[in-house]
Design goal:
The complex is a heterodimer of chains A (114) and B (114). Chain A is mainly β and 114 residues long. Helix content of chain A is 0%, strand content 59%. Chain A is built from no helices and 11 strands. Chain A is globular and about 50 Å long. With 114 residues, chain B is mainly beta. Chain B is built from no helices and 11 strands. The chains are: A mainly beta (114), B mainly beta (114).
Chain lengths: 114, 114
Amino acid sequence: GEDVEQSLFLSVREGDSSVINCTYTDSSSTYLYWYKQEPGAGLQLLTYIFSNMDMKQDQRLTVLLNKKDKHLSLRIADTQTGDSAIYFCAESLRTTSGTYKYIFGTGTRLKVLA
Amino acid sequence: KAGVTQTPRYLIKTRGQQVTLSCSPISGHRSVSWYQQTPGQGLQFLFEYFSETQRNKGNFPGRFSGRQFSNSRSEMNVSTLELGDSALYLCASSGGTYTYNEQFFGPGTRLTVL
């Protein structure tokens, strides 16, 4: 089946690290993504990881992938108030027609307290 | 390069009416995908168009339809609106030809059905 799950809310203090978790069910994912949505805006791609990688680091962002447990996480170091947003996890799956489609999670609302 | 644009940004309709939403992709992008975003449900995939053909389809009733024009602009139509259709409708464009295709999202059209 195709399902991506995330917890709905996370609250952290400014300067702390945030860890947003995601679980997915389809083991045939090719790429996994993290998107950020700020109020009134569309989704912005933050980072992505190829399914045969374990970890990817990009400045304050660290993505960890545990393929065995189908678990993806996004760690934001030194979280700032500007990081307050909704974060979506997504996976891309190959369809029977050879194209790719995206499955998104429910989104995690991150609130950063000053 | 201009981003993905969606019109209108806000729309209020009543039950039973129909609505047409428009999406202009980034210049050169041939793939346009549509998503419905509701609180607690995350993003639900509606359909994807590539070179004027529907390439993938989600699990939405036939009241939801779309099309794509030769300039890659896409429209989405919802007929016989129901209260549950109230949502943010997002479109995303991508090059559409490779495994990794970053999707660029528009700001969305917020539809309210009364």
